[in-house]
Amino acid sequence: MLVVAALTFDIWWQVLAPSAAFLLLHAVEGNFLTPAIIGRRLTLNPIFVFATVLFWGWLWGVPGALLAVPILAVFKILCDATPQLRTIGALIGDSFPGPACIFPPTRTACIGSAPVTYLRPRN
């Protein structure tokens, strides 16, 4: 980008302006917008994040460590979308309801704002 700007403009500040604008917009988006939007909807338990980074880093090295959190986030989204796996999704998330809320007498539990029905273990 800097080379194209240097070939297009003659004044030094016009050469640096496109790169500076890109860096500014990228910094605002990466540090403020995306975490604010994603953070409200997707919360992950820090212990699971740490364990996931350790596991995928051990398995695949640096690429695995970089992909660990997105893999965990996708797994949590899939668990939240599947009724039988919502307990695992709540455990991976930062809002696990606890054992008293998993198997209440009414066989429903609340995760977030939607009631979720769980199967009672057989005696």
What does it look like?
With 123 residues, the chain is mainly α. The protein folds into two domains: 1-41; 43-123, no CATH class. It has six helices and two strands; from the N terminus they run H-H-H-H-H-H-E-E. It has helices spanning 2-8, 12-41, 46-60, 62-81, 86-92, 99-102, and strands at residues 108-111, 114-117. A two-stranded antiparallel ribbon has the order 1-2. The longest helix has 30 residues, at 12-41.
**Distance between the terminal alpha carbons, to the nearest Å?**
67 Å
Q: Could you name the ranges where pLDDT drops below 50 across 5 or more consecutive residues?
A: 99-108
- Structural class of the helix and strand makeup? mainly alpha
Rg, Cα atoms, Å: 22 Å
Compute the number of structural domains: 2
Strand percentage lies at 5-15%
Number of strands: 2
Please sum up the structure shown.
The chain folds into 2 domains: 1-41; 43-123, no CATH class. Helices cover 67% and strands 7% of the residues.
Strand-helix topology:
Blueprint: H1 2-8, H2 12-41, H3 46-60, H4 62-81, H5 86-92, H6 99-102, E1 108-111, E2 114-117
Antiparallel strand pairs: 1-2
What characteristics describe this protein?
single chain; 123 residues; 2 domains; 6 helices
